[in-house]
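quick q for whoever's on today - can somebody do inverse folding on this one?? i tried earlier but teh output was garbage lol. C-alpha coordinates:
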Protein backbone atom coordinates (compact mmCIF):
# COMPACT_ATOMS: atom_id res chain seq x y z
CA UNK A 1 0.00 0.00 0.00
CA UNK A 2 1.39 3.39 -1.01
CA UNK A 3 1.23 6.47 1.30
CA UNK A 4 -1.28 8.14 -1.03
CA UNK A 5 -3.47 5.03 -0.86
CA UNK A 6 -3.78 5.38 2.92
CA UNK A 7 -4.89 9.01 2.65
CA UNK A 8 -7.48 8.09 0.00
CA UNK A 9 -8.72 5.20 2.13
CA UNK A 10 -9.13 7.50 5.15
CA UNK A 11 -10.99 10.06 3.05
CA UNK A 12 -13.31 7.40 1.60
CA UNK A 13 -13.83 5.87 5.03
CA UNK A 14 -14.79 9.18 6.59
CA UNK A 15 -17.15 9.96 3.72
CA UNK A 16 -18.68 6.51 4.04
CA UNK A 17 -19.07 6.98 7.79
CA UNK A 18 -20.89 10.26 7.30
CA UNK A 19 -23.20 8.83 4.64
CA UNK A 20 -23.90 5.70 6.63
CA UNK A 21 -24.47 7.54 9.88
CA UNK A 22 -26.74 10.15 8.37
CA UNK A 23 -28.85 7.61 6.51
CA UNK A 24 -28.71 4.99 9.27
CA UNK A 25 -27.34 2.31 6.97
CA UNK A 26 -26.16 0.16 9.83
CA UNK A 27 -24.90 -2.80 7.81
CA UNK A 28 -22.98 -0.61 5.37
CA UNK A 29 -21.47 1.26 8.32
CA UNK A 30 -20.35 -1.98 9.94
CA UNK A 31 -18.83 -3.14 6.65
CA UNK A 32 -17.03 0.19 6.31
CA UNK A 33 -15.71 -0.30 9.84
CA UNK A 34 -14.45 -3.74 8.80
CA UNK A 35 -12.64 -2.21 5.82
CA UNK A 36 -11.08 0.37 8.12
CA UNK A 37 -9.87 -2.38 10.47
CA UNK A 38 -8.46 -4.38 7.54
CA UNK A 39 -6.70 -1.25 6.30
CA UNK A 40 -5.12 -0.76 9.73
CA UNK A 41 -6.70 2.65 10.21
CA UNK A 42 -8.89 2.09 13.27
CA UNK A 43 -6.14 3.33 15.60
CA UNK A 44 -6.07 6.77 13.92
CA UNK A 45 -7.76 9.14 16.38
CA UNK A 46 -9.77 10.94 13.69
CA UNK A 47 -10.97 7.72 12.10
CA UNK A 48 -11.82 6.26 15.52
CA UNK A 49 -13.78 9.38 16.48
CA UNK A 50 -15.70 9.17 13.22
CA UNK A 51 -16.57 5.54 13.90
CA UNK A 52 -17.61 6.49 17.40
CA UNK A 53 -19.97 9.15 16.01
CA UNK A 54 -21.35 6.65 13.50
CA UNK A 55 -22.27 4.11 16.18
CA UNK A 56 -23.86 6.82 18.30
CA UNK A 57 -25.97 7.89 15.32
CA UNK A 58 -27.03 4.26 15.00
CA UNK A 59 -28.03 4.46 18.67
CA UNK A 60 -25.70 1.54 19.33
CA UNK A 61 -24.30 2.71 22.66
CA UNK A 62 -22.53 -0.58 23.38
CA UNK A 63 -20.62 -0.54 20.08
CA UNK A 64 -19.81 3.15 20.57
CA UNK A 65 -18.49 2.54 24.07
CA UNK A 66 -16.44 -0.44 22.86
CA UNK A 67 -14.97 1.76 20.13
CA UNK A 68 -14.26 4.50 22.68
CA UNK A 69 -12.60 2.05 25.07
CA UNK A 70 -10.32 0.79 22.26
CA UNK A 71 -9.13 4.29 21.38
CA UNK A 72 -5.43 4.64 22.23
CA UNK A 73 -5.76 8.37 22.57
CA UNK A 74 -8.84 10.31 23.63
CA UNK A 75 -8.93 14.01 22.95
CA UNK A 76 -11.55 16.61 23.82
CA UNK A 77 -13.43 15.93 20.57
CA UNK A 78 -13.73 12.20 21.26
CA UNK A 79 -14.90 12.82 24.84
CA UNK A 80 -17.41 15.42 23.63
CA UNK A 81 -18.72 12.98 21.03
CA UNK A 82 -19.23 10.27 23.65
CA UNK A 83 -20.88 12.62 26.17
CA UNK A 84 -23.13 14.06 23.45
CA UNK A 85 -24.03 10.55 22.30
CA UNK A 86 -24.99 9.48 25.78
CA UNK A 87 -27.12 12.59 26.29
CA UNK A 88 -28.73 12.29 22.84
CA UNK A 89 -29.61 8.65 23.46
CA UNK A 90 -31.22 9.24 26.86
CA UNK A 91 -28.26 7.98 28.90
CA UNK A 92 -27.99 10.94 31.29
CA UNK A 93 -26.14 9.09 34.04
CA UNK A 94 -23.56 7.79 31.58
CA UNK A 95 -23.07 11.32 30.23
CA UNK A 96 -22.34 12.54 33.75
CA UNK A 97 -19.95 9.64 34.40
CA UNK A 98 -18.21 10.41 31.10
CA UNK A 99 -17.75 14.01 32.19
CA UNK A 100 -16.22 12.83 35.46
CA UNK A 101 -13.89 10.44 33.61
CA UNK A 102 -12.91 13.23 31.25
CA UNK A 103 -11.93 15.46 34.17
CA UNK A 104 -9.85 12.61 35.63
CA UNK A 105 -7.99 12.47 32.30
CA UNK A 106 -7.10 16.14 32.85
CA UNK A 107 -9.17 17.59 30.01
CA UNK A 108 -10.95 20.91 30.40
CA UNK A 109 -14.54 21.27 29.20
CA UNK A 110 -15.57 23.58 26.43
CA UNK A 111 -18.97 24.71 25.22
CA UNK A 112 -19.40 21.52 23.23
CA UNK A 113 -19.00 19.53 26.46
CA UNK A 114 -21.22 21.67 28.62
CA UNK A 115 -24.33 21.75 26.39
CA UNK A 116 -25.08 18.00 26.32
CA UNK A 117 -23.90 17.66 29.90
CA UNK A 118 -26.39 20.28 31.11
CA UNK A 119 -29.12 18.61 29.05
CA UNK A 120 -28.32 15.28 30.71
CA UNK A 121 -28.25 16.87 34.14
CA UNK A 122 -31.60 18.56 33.58
CA UNK A 123 -33.04 15.12 32.79
CA UNK A 124 -31.64 13.88 36.10
CA UNK A 125 -32.78 17.05 37.86
CA UNK A 126 -29.14 17.48 38.79
CA UNK A 127 -29.13 21.17 39.64
CA UNK A 128 -26.18 20.80 42.02
CA UNK A 129 -24.12 18.88 39.46
CA UNK A 130 -25.06 21.42 36.77
CA UNK A 131 -23.73 24.21 38.95
CA UNK A 132 -20.57 22.18 39.57
CA UNK A 133 -20.06 21.64 35.83
CA UNK A 134 -20.52 25.34 35.18
CA UNK A 135 -18.16 26.25 38.03
CA UNK A 136 -15.56 23.83 36.65
CA UNK A 137 -15.79 25.54 33.28
CA UNK A 138 -15.59 29.05 34.73
CA UNK A 139 -12.72 28.08 37.03
CA UNK A 140 -10.79 26.84 34.00
CA UNK A 141 -11.24 30.13 32.18
CA UNK A 142 -13.84 29.18 29.60
CA UNK A 143 -15.94 31.93 28.11
CA UNK A 144 -18.92 30.07 26.72
CA UNK A 145 -20.38 33.14 25.05
CA UNK A 146 -17.44 33.12 22.63
CA UNK A 147 -16.93 29.33 22.58
CA UNK A 148 -20.46 28.64 21.41
CA UNK A 149 -20.90 31.44 18.91
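ok took a stab at it. sequence:
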Amino acid sequence: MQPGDVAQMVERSLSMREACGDLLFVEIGKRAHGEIVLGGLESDIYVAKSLLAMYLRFEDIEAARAMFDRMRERNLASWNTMIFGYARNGKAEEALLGFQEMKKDGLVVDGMTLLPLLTALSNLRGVKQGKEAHAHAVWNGKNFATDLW
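fwiw The chain has a mean pLDDT of 77. also The two ends are 42 Å apart (CA to CA). so keep that in mind when u check it
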